[in-house]
Here is the input.
Amino acid sequence: MSEVVEARGPKVPPSFPPKSPPQKKPVEPPRPQPATKPKSLTGVPPRLVVTSRRARVLAFRADRWAAKKAAAQAALAVAEWDYPLLDEHDFLKTVHGLVDTAVTAGGKRVSVHLADQDDKILVMALNHQTSEQDAAGAVPAEVAVLRTVDACGAHTDHDGHAWWALLDTRPRPKKRLA
Here is the structure.
């Protein structure tokens, strides 16, 4: 006689409120994934962007006086950056030579981009002339041989033809002749 008897008491409501089911967030439709690279709103490719350093952009109409005006305005802009050892003659000659080359290559306007980092100054002249057949010509020889020019070059991209030079703001020691 060993029967197991289950003892069930009377049905009494619980003394605490029942657990409510967790609230579900409303279903959000999946975000559309672009099939290709997103294009800019205006259809124009992005412009040159310089970050984490001082920079200045100067724009000029492409005429025969642009090189002289660009050199003067660039010198004023760089003077604010406080480089007391910068060879001003080399800097002016660099800006003048690059802008003169950009004007000669064609286009309606020329822009000069200046930036600095680690005691070096980048000078870039763009003529905004984008002809697929032409490549930017070489950097003028009078710029390439300057004492403070560390590197220089030219290239063509979506902004147009560009000529650039990197100048060292600390003068090198002069060599002594024995």
Observations:
- The two ends are 125 Å apart (CA to CA).
- The helical segments are 66-79, 88-105, 141-144.
